[in-house]
Amino acid sequence: MAEKPETTDSMVAALLRERAGLAERGLDDRVAQVDEQLALRGHTPPGDSKESAPAGRSAPPRGRRARSTETT
To answer: Does the pTM of the predicted model rise above 0.85?
Structure first.
């Protein structure tokens, strides 16, 4: 199910999507720049997204098998 949009301003929405991608990749300097642009548009930047980012998958996706670690 789709998440409820945080804003109706398309520029703020685009900045929030960009910020999420940058935070996921660990580009903290770019995240700070996007936060600055959000503040200029009157939107408070979200909290530190490192805490809410998923750590990774512990199981393979459904319908796929995990790679074998054994080599022959």
So the answer is: no
